[in-house]
Specification:
By secondary structure, the protein is α+β, with helices and mostly antiparallel strands. It is 31% helix and 25% strand. It has three domains: 1-157, no CATH class; 169-264, Immunoglobulins (Immunoglobulin-like); 273-295 and 331-480, SPRY domain (Jelly Rolls, Sandwich). It has helices at residues 2-104, 110-126, 150-157, 296-307, 315-318, 472-481, and strands at 169-170, 176-178, 181-187, 197-205, 220-225, 229-232, 241-249, 261-264, 281-283, 287-290, 340-342, 351-358, 364-371, 386-392, 398-403, 406-409, 417-423, 428-433, 439-444, 451-458, 461-468. Strands 9-10-21-12-17-18-19 form a seven-stranded antiparallel sheet, with no helix packed on it. The chain has a six-stranded antiparallel sheet with strand order 11-20-13-14-15-16, with no helix packed on it. Strands 1, 2, 3 and 6 form a four-stranded antiparallel sheet that branches. It is elongated and about 165 Å long. Residues 105-162 form the COS domain. Residues 268-473 form the B30.2/SPRY domain. Residues 298-308 have a biased composition (Basic and acidic residues).
Length: 496
């Protein structure tokens, strides 16, 4: 019966996963169909604009050519009209002179005839008809303004859609996820020397497999990539996976997207648990700061209010408390001199890494891990349930590793930022200079229950960086330095 139920549960789980996969594919199809409709409408609008632009250019060219023909016509007509007017005037004068000469032949008096002959001779010498050019200044030829658009017609007939680059292919084997960076590599299946650049898009997701249309995250875009490889660096891995896709672009148009590739980007992400932190600590998600007004002063105020009247505070009075009631309720709030705050995510397996930076004026702080059972009065490193490095800048400067109320002084400079490496399965807790990756100290133990990141701060503040992969340099150092540095056993003979 139990085996049948287990088998049925597996079948139900398989069916649910398949239904989820099909539903996601249905969403993709609907999204694609909507995209086809919207993109087709946009392309048709663009096509109308392009042809309207062509029509406009043709109209402008036609108008310019018509104006040129009309100007040439007007110029030649004016020249011919001027010549025609001159010729008509000359002809009229010449006909008048001819008539006068003809009449002069009938003059009988020699003296009068001689006078008329001289007049005719003088007038002929000055007559415009003899100075007039009888060749037209312009011809009626207009062939220099003729057109032949046969080549242009061929070009217009050859109009076609732009050549679109083929979709690239992302090569998962060549992609690399390391040191909170992702290198994405791709290639073109067919050589295309007209490609100008590539566009890479990525987004974070908690779903494996095909990207989800209804994923809550938007695609981030990196444009104008000249090569076939790109590295995203300085990422915070606050999701399990990242989707990537790429497309090629020529000078005019972008091609199809490549098939999306999903790469795993898993890392430890946690916030600080303000429900159990000491009242003297002001806690945000990744920051904690000493708050001298948050403890006894507030407690005394609350006690004073409770002692007034009937001893039953009104709802308004209780709402004035500086801190909300614990939301997790998994443990008591730290109190006394245990100025402690824990992370809200337990480490139960695997290798993890995070970094801590103290304020410059911070007088005292500790960084490490602890079991959930750490008492509310317990300080980090003073019990067998916690491990830490402790920095003291008050009265005297000390830097030490602490566990089970034992202390080992560290003869190294306190770094600006401390990197914490926790190998739960390997039973190792190591501290590094986060910038140089110099090993500061290592505890070697066997964790018997889940551990939580732990922090103590007094007169100052700490800020955390989570969502980080174990750096490659740390992995290398762990292999080479394992067993060669101080361990928890060395603290057994040390005094506090």
């Amino acid at each position: 019966m139990d085996s049948q139920k287990e088998a049925l549960q597996r079948i139900i789980s398989t069916l649910a996963n398949k239904n989820d996969e099909i539903q996601n594919f249905v969403d993709i199809l609907n999204h694609t169909l909507k995209g086809v409709q919207e993109n087709s409408s946009n392309i048709l609008s663009d096509l109308d604009e392009e042809f309207d632009s062509l029509y406009s250019i043709l109209d402008e060219v036609k108008e310019s050519m018509i104006n040129s023909i009309k100007q040439e016509q007007a110029h030649k007509s004016q020249e011919l009209q001027n010549q025609l007017s001159q010729c008509n005037n000359a002809l009229e004068n010449s006909e008048e002179l001819l008539e006068f000469a003809t009449r002069s032949l009938d003059i009988k008096e020699p003296e009068e005839f001689s006078k008329a002959s001289r007049q005719i001779k003088d007038r002929v010498t000055m007559a415009s008809a003899f100075r007039l050019s009888l060749k037209p200044k312009v011809s009626d030829n207009m062939t220099h303004l003729m057109v032949d658009f046969s080549q242009e017609r061929q070009m217009l007939q050859a109009l076609k859609f732009l050549p679109v680059p083929k979709a690239p292919e992302i090569d998962p084997v060549e992609c690399l996820v390391a040191d909170n960076s992702v290198t994405v590599a791709w290639r073109m299946l067919e050589e295309d020397n007209k490609i100008d650049h590539y566009v890479l898009e990525y987004r974070k997701t908690n779903f494996d497999g095909l990207p989800r249309v209804k994923d809550e995250r938007c695609w981030e875009i990196i444009d104008n990539i000249k090569g076939t490889e790109y590295t995203l660096s300085g990422l915070k891995f606050d999701s399990k996976y990242m989707n990537f896709r790429v497309r090629a672009c020529n000078k005019a148009v972008a091609g199809e997207y490549s098939d999306p590739v999903t790469l795993e980007t898993k890392a430890l992400n946690f916030s600080l648990d303000n429900s159990s932190s000491h009242l003297n600590l002001k806690v945000e998600d990744t920051c904690v700061e000493w708050d001298p007004t948050g403890g006894k002063g507030q407690e005394s105020k609350m006690k004073g209010k409770e002692n007034k009247g009937s001893g039953t505070p009104s709802p308004k009075r209780t709402s004035l408390s500086s801190r909300p009631p614990p939301v997790r309720g998994s443990r008591d709030r730290f109190t006394g001199e245990s100025y402690t705050v824990l992370g809200d995510t337990a480490i139960e397996s695997g290798q993890h890494y995070w970094e801590v930076k103290a304020q410059k004026d911070c007088k005292s702080y500790s960084v490490g891990v602890a079991y959930k059972t750490l008492g509310k009065f317990d300080q980090l490193g003073k019990t067998n349930t916690s491990w830490c490095v402790h920095v003291n800048n008050w009265l005297q400067n000390t830097f030490a590793a602490k566990h089970n109320n034992k202390v080992k002084a560290l003869d190294v400079t306190v770094p600006e930022k401390i990197g914490v490496f926790c190998d739960f399965d390997g039973g190792q807790l190591s501290f590094y200079d986060a910038n140089s990756k110099q090993l500061l100290y290592s505890f070697k133990t066997k964790f018997t229950q889940p551990v939580l990141p732990g922090f103590m701060v007094w007169c100052g503040g700490l800020s955390l960086s989570t969502g980080m992969q174990v750096p490659s340099a740390v992995r290398t150092l762990q292999k080479s330095e394992n067993g060669m540095t101080g361990s928890a056993s060395s603290l057994n003979n040390a005094t506090q």
